[in-house]
Design brief:
With 117 residues, the chain is mainly alpha-helical. The protein contains 5 helices and 2 strands; from the N terminus they run αβαααβα.
Length: 117
């Protein structure tokens, strides 16, 4: 449960940074962004592994770079589900997913390091 909450928080911060940096990612309220982070967490846990498995041959051909496309699709799915959170355009979704991944990874690493110390 703790890992899920940490993932939710890191996704929230990642979406916040992505919305700040990219014009194509918008949110109406902090509540919408919080719900979007929660939905993104659930989508990444449930749907993303299935898409990763189905796209395995493409993953091999592209040396894993197709993962970026899958992450962008997950962000578009979240924008379709959550009212008040919008991602306009596939490029915004892909770049936004890269930002969410980088910010989330850095935060997750910092949290793990703080736990070890």
């Amino acid at each position: 449960m703790r890992k899920l909450i940490i993932r939710w928080i890191t996704n929230f911060v990642g979406l916040l940074v992505a919305a700040w940096l990219i014009e194509g990612i918008t949110y109406d309220s902090t509540t919408a962004l919080t719900v979007a982070a929660l939905v993104l967490t659930v989508v990444n846990i449930t749907i993303k592994p299935i898409l990763g498995l189905l796209s395995f041959p493409i993953q091999i051909i592209t040396l894993g770079l197709f993962t970026i496309v899958i992450n962008g699709l997950m962000l578009k799915v979240v924008s379709a589900i959550v009212a008040g959170f919008a991602v306009s355009g596939f490029l915004a979704a892909v770049v936004g997913s890269i930002i969410v991944s980088v910010v989330g990874g850095l935060l997750h690493h910092a949290i793990e390091k703080a736990d070890r110390d």
